Amino acid sequence: MRAIDMHSHYYGGLVDDLLKRDRRPFVSRNAAGRLVLNAMTASTEMSDGYTDIPARLAWMDRNRIATQLMTFPGALGVDVMPAAEIAPAILSYNDHLAGLCAGSGGRFAGLAGLPLDDMSQAAAEMRRIRHDLRLPGVILPGNYFLSIEAVRRLAPVFDAAAETGALVMIHPGLMPGEAPPEPYPDTSVYRASVLNLQASLAQMGMTVLAGKLAEAWPSITFHLVNLGGTLPFVLERLEAVALSRPPHEPFPRESLRGMVYDCASLGPRALELAVRTFGADRIMLGTDYPIFTPDQVADTVEVAELTDAEKDMILAGTASRILDRLR
């Protein structure tokens, strides 16, 4: 086992609070007694991996994963609910996650959640996460990163994170007060969860670049999921547009290396393109477990047409460098 999985989610420590709710997001039980996650736009029967640590470890062992980064389930929208209503549950989850990671013998690291409806409380929790809980960072909803104006609201959190350095995962999710998107009239699961999601991730990456976030907070590692969405594919068009239209200046290709990326839910061809775009030293293995549970996930890296050194960097090297620095 040598791989480090830098994109997975963990729901244990939050389920009890979600069972008490009767509106989305909440957890219920079906006729068979299985837990059902009722997210903002869909309902899913929860596999054991959502909450059961032995089941997760068994899956990791099958897939040769030595360490897994588990995150607060940010896409649920819990972290953007009214802080007075949900902050105690978020802080309790963070305590639970920190205890799991500390007692895991190095098998787990964790990204916490923040009560983002109250930015001063979110900044205070960011400090507690790094100083007291000793977790490497947080997961933040990607919709903040769809414009420079919106992402500026996170400045207090970034300031708090920068005091010790932190890993900030940019993951699809709503901002406070936003309504869930309406489903598409046809093939919605593909249009929403693949095409629209990947394009929106590219928009988030553009905000990090144009907003110069990495330059403003150099001790923060900004982690954009799913290989940065469509960024690797459209980079050449970005460069063509930059030169053919005002201000007629080259697109700052090198600035894409100011972030790191994971390859969750994507295959070897996409990974090869991303390596050519960002460099293997900016890319990490990701699985999106337990949302996605393909066995032998490391094979995505193994079968890619990459050098052995590049594969080693993606499987563990890039992640080790980041996690070691933040311990």
SS-based class: alpha/beta
| Number of beta strands | 11
* Global shape: globular
Sheet-strand content, in percent, reads 15-25%
Count of separate structural domains: 1
N-to-C series of helices and strands: EHEEEHEHEHEHHEHHEHEHEHH
Physical arrangement of strands within the biggest beta sheet: 1-5-6-7-8-9-10-11
Question: How far is the first residue's CA from the last residue's CA?
Answer: 21 Å
Uncertain regions: pLDDT < 50 for 5+ in a row? none
**Would you identify the CATH architecture?**
Alpha-Beta Barrel
Chain-averaged pLDDT: 96
Largest sheet: 8 strands, parallel
- Bin the helical content: 40-55%
Organism: Prosthecodimorpha hirschii
Domain Amidohydrolase-related: 4-324
Pfam families: Amidohydro_2
GO molecular function: carboxy-lyase activity; hydrolase activity
Structural features, described:
The protein has 327 residues and is of the alpha/beta class. The protein has one domain (3-326): Alpha-Beta Barrel (TIM Barrel). It is built from 12 helices and 11 strands. Strands 1-5-6-7-8-9-10-11 form an 8-stranded parallel β-sheet, with helices on both faces. The two termini are 21 Å apart.
Topology:
Elements: E1 3-9, H1 15-19, E2 26-29, E3 35-38, E4 43-45, H2 53-62, E5 65-71, H3 83-102, E6 108-112, H4 119-131, E7 137-141, H5 148-151, H6 155-162, E8 166-171, H7 188-210, H8 213-216, E9 220-224, H9 231-244, E10 259-262, H10 268-278, E11 283-284, H11 299-302, H12 308-326
Which key phrases capture this entry?
alpha/beta, TIM Barrel, 12 helices
Offer a concise description of the structure.
The protein is of the alpha/beta class. It has helices spanning 15-19, 53-62, 83-102, 119-131, 148-151, 155-162, 188-210, 213-216, 231-244, 268-278, 299-302, 308-326; strands spanning 3-9, 26-29, 35-38, 43-45, 65-71, 108-112, 137-141, 166-171, 220-224, 259-262, 283-284.
